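Audit log entry. Action: structure prediction of a protein-small molecule complex. Ligand: S-adenosylmethionine. The ligand was supplied as SMILES and no pocket hint was given, so placement is left entirely to the predictor. Protonation state taken as written. Sequence taken verbatim from the request; no trimming, no tag removal. Recorded inputs:
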Amino acid sequence: MTDNAVTAMDATVKNASVNDLIEKIRQQALADRVPIIQDEGRLFLEDWIFRKKPRKILEIGTAVGYSAIFMNQVCHSEIYTIERNEKMFQTALKNLRCLPFGKEIHLIFKDALEAVSDLADQTFDLIFIDAAKAQYQKFFDLYTPLLSVGGTVICDNMDFHGLVENSDNEHLSRSVRGLVRKLQSFRSYLQSHPEFETTFFHIGDGISVSEKK
Ligand SMILES: C[S@@+](CC[C@H](N)C(=O)[O-])C[C@H]1O[C@@H](n2cnc3c(N)ncnc32)[C@H](O)[C@@H]1O
């Protein structure tokens, strides 16, 4: 066996163990009912990152670090990810420490509505919004000034279980109705935004991709 073969095999084994770790994090999140991105959404994001190779990604809504870790794994983009819930943040920190990589993933424990000044000297090629749905427009307005030229914003949960396009269900609670209305208004906001071209995909729980013109 040549040295090259050994190196290639080491890489395969290492990737397999990283994938095992990511799968463990996914299983634990599901068992703990942590709302992580659906599998279809994950595939979409991984494919997008593989094709576009963003150098730096900002994620709003870390939860336990699942999406930050798999996004980082696609092409080792540097990731900044913001989480306001201490328990989630601590679990994400613990998950990151289990990984044989992770130097490129920066966890920020803060409310994203108050963290923009911490990142004022950074620019991002991709911003992934996956946090409180009622605040999507605020996150978008706060953080898009940090996008690089030609940067993209991807948002998850834009269909919100199909309710955004079909909210006539009289059994919805007031709070769910409120969230649906906010997401509907955010969709219209994106559609008419003069600086972004937005496409909506019915993938996973609904994904929007807004490209800076
Ligand atoms: C849907 S989960 C994120 C899932 C994660 N992106 C994944 O797929 O692995 C949303 C997370 O955003 C966090 N969050 C909600 N609003 C936030 C805010 N204003 N600032 C920071 N984190 C927030 C919640 O605590 C929750 O952990």
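Audit: result stored. Strands lie at 56-60, 78-83, 105-109, 124-129, 147-155, 196-201, 207-212. DSSP finds six helices and seven strands in the chain.
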